[in-house]
Amino acid sequence: MDLKFHINGHSRSYMSVGLFDTIASPADEQLMIQLLNAVKTGLQKKGSLISVEELMKIQTEDLALKYILDKKPFPTAELIRVMDALIQMLEKTWDHKDYQMELDWTYFE
């Protein structure tokens, strides 16, 4: 999975994470669930928002991403919701018909 491609802005306005392509066994699934839960715990410790200062520390060549993220904090609840969805997909309890998610955060208000 080449997340750097997306982080550097080579795919505009969306990110597709092919994590299911690299999971080959139930043990891999459990390991990924543990990892996602650890990420979730880390996000919860940040509080309700990720500061603009922290967002600006994301290493990327994508100046548009920097421009979008430099105006207001990002709600951790939205990232936690993504982690929960990925966990549900791995546990095969995802109850939606597709895998697309819209975040409740907009640059323009």
What can you see in these coordinates?
The chain is mainly alpha-helical and 109 residues long. Helices cover 47% and strands 4% of the residues. A two-stranded antiparallel sheet has the order 1-2. The protein is elongated. The model has no long low-confidence stretch (mean pLDDT 81).
List keywords for this structure.
2 strands, mainly alpha, 109 residues, 47% helix, single chain
How much helix is in the residues?
40-55%
Order of helices and strands: HHEHHEH
Q: Roughly what is the average pLDDT, rounded to an integer? A: 81
**Count of individual domains:** 1
- Beta-strand portion reads under 5%
Overview in brief:
Helices cover 47% and strands 4% of the residues. It is mainly alpha-helical. The chain has one domain (26-109).
Q: Would you spell out the secondary-structure blueprint of this structure?
A:
Layout lengths: L2 H5 L18 H20 L3 E2 L1 H4 L7 H7 L4 E2 H15 L19
Helix pairs in contact: 2-5
